[in-house]
# Entry
Amino acid sequence: MVKALLCALLPLWLGGCSFSSTPKAGDLSVSASASWPYAAPVHYALDEQYQFASDEVEAWFEPVLSAVGSELQRKGWQPATVHDANLVVAVGMLGPKDQDDALMAERLHISVPKRAEDDGVLALVLLDPHLNRVVWRATLALQPEGEVDDATRQQLSQTWIARMLATLPR
# Structure
């Protein structure tokens, strides 16, 4: 029912080309540490142990992971191993029918915000592996509205991730 996915990040809604029209992004919630000691270029790692996606959102996994990597690199961040990274990027996704909030919260070291019954959620979390703490997180409520083709899924993933990562310090 729930699975940790690939060595990168995570997806969204009903398998295949799922949703019911074009999904819409809702409320964005951001929380950041009071200090940001990470000098440019930030070295980040995407590690499988910090990924969570339900079966319902599996088709969104690759587009979201791709969007996270390209958006961070656009900001000048550089990929690294977990051992060499300043920050580990955790990604989680739940579809609107999923009841796995507690499991995702445990996997990503966060609390999942209360969500409307018909909302899915996309979460990005930055963890400092040396201090073992969350330094930034963003969650985005997503409302499904129909079937989505691959090109639209890629475009929406890029838009959502850019919106979320625009809130990063510096």
